[in-house]
Design brief:
Layout: E1 14-16, E2 23-25, E3 27-30, H1 41-53, E4 58-60, H2 71-84, E5 92-97, H3 112-126, E6 131-136, H4 145-157, E7 161-167, H5 171-184, E8 188-192, H6 201-204, H7 207-214, E9 217-221, H8 242-245, H9 251-270, H10 275-284, E10 291-294, H11 299-306, H12 316-328
Parallel strand pairs: 3-4, 3-10, 4-5, 5-6, 6-7, 7-8, 8-9, 9-10
Antiparallel strand pairs: 1-2
Helix pairs in contact: 1-2, 3-4, 4-5, 5-7, 9-12
């Protein structure tokens, strides 16, 4: 029987999500990797418990997380039932639909048919009456944006979600989606873009500025560049790591970036932080991003990452050095979706 740590709200900062009434933890936890059938249930459970004990109230999922697709939501549903039932009202649980989920013409992208059916499937897998945030996972170039946004509006009005968001939409599409949802009377709460020291498209595209202007919140996924911005790959590619498994991080990406990563690691050491902590602090610097959305393969990584909150400040000289290093390398696996 799990009992949450009594001191869980003592250190984590909770930051307002845009102009909304909702606050998110500075660090949120995502279940993209290491929550499928290839990971022992005890490890998944331990990670969720560690996260919650450290004040991480926000857990991010999607219909297709696994493998196989859907299994992360099923596993999370079991953990909710066994451990988190008394804490449901202390949690922000999100899911998404947009990527390939089932066969035929209604199993991906942004139609009303797909989004509503997928949301119902996600709720069933997790054993929930509603999710706190439901996202359009990617912009659909073939479906009218009005249809996708009307589906999100319906998902809120029918009680399936409390808030809605969009992921990997570029600045122009974000402005359009925001305007349609505003007209419909369901605010666009949040944008979920990829963002880290080696991937700064949200700055060059103007998205970060647009989100502040629109009063939308933001949650940056892959703040650690899938583990590249940690001490994990400094001495090669360790067995069992994401790059060794060649899941979504190709070893060539590690090779391309490792010299820059080593320079960043030296800076983190000089700041008295681990590289993971510095990478998260950098994403959160200045308050422009509401939350950094990390992943993990073991509980100790979550403990390390949450240590980032002890030093979120950077000197101008540190920022300039990071800028110079970011310019050398640029890795954005999600560029296509935001084109
Ligand atoms: N909206 C979208 O399209 C989209 C796309 C991708 C992700 N996301 C969301 O973002 C979440 C995070 O993605 P991500 O897992 O790629 O993010 P990430 O935080 O950049 O990378 C997580 C990986 O870094 C390594 N790691 C984490 N902490 C570490 C530490 N302290 N020391 C050493 N290594 C550490 C682990 O790699 P190993 O597994 O190798 O140990 C872990 O699996 C996902 O779960 C999902 O919720 C959304």
């Amino acid at each position: 029987m799990y009992t949450a740590a009594e001191n869980r709200y003592e250190s984590m900062p909770y930051r307002r999500c845009g102009n909304s009434g909702l606050k998110l933890p500075a660090i949120s936890f995502g279940l993209w990797h290491n929550f499928g059938d290839d990971t022992p249930h005890a490890t998944k459970r331990a990670m969720c418990q560690t996260a919650f004990d450290l004040g991480i109230t926000h857990f991010d999922l999607a219909n297709n997380y696994g493998p196989p697709p859907g299994s992360a939501e099923t596993a999370f549903g079991e953990i909710l039932k066994s451990d988190f039932k008394p804490y449901r009202d202390e949690m922000i649980i999100s899911s998404k639909a947009g990527y390939d989920m089932w066969g035929g013409p209604y199993g991906e992208w942004g139609s009303r048919k797909y989004l509503i059916a997928s949301c119902d499937q996600s709720l069933k897998r997790m054993g929930l009456d509603y999710v706190d945030i439901f996202y359009s996972h990617r912009f659909d170039p073939e479906t009218p944006l009005e249809e996708t946004m009307m589906a999100l509006d319906h998902i809120v009005r029918s009680g399936r979600a409390l808030y809605v968001g969009i992921s990997s939409y570029n600045t122009q599409r974000t402005r359009e989606a925001h305007a349609i949802l505003k007209e419909l009377g369901t605010p666009c709460l949040i944008h979920q873009p990829s963002y880290n020291i080696l991937n700064r498209w949200v700055e060059t595209d103007g998205l970060k500025d647009a989100l502040s202007e629109l009063g939308m919140g933001s949650i940056a996924f892959v703040p650690l560049a899938q583990g590249l911005l940690t001490n994990k790959y400094l001495n090669g590619i360790p067995a069992g790591s994401r790059a060794a498994q060649d899941k979504s991080l190709h070893p060539s990406v590690v090779e391309k970036a490792i010299e820059s990563v080593k320079k960043l690691n030296e800076m983190a050491q000089a700041r008295g932080q681990t590289l993971a902590q510095m990478a998260i602090a950098w994403v959160l610097r200045g308050g422009g991003i509401t939350s950094a959305l990390i992943g993990a393969s073991k509980p100790s990584q979550i403990v390390d990452c949450v240590g980032a909150i002890n030093n979120l400040d950077f000197t101008p000289a540190e920022l300039a050095t990071i800028d110079a290093i970011s310019e050398e390398k640029s890795i954005n696996l999600w560029a296509k979706s935001s084109e």
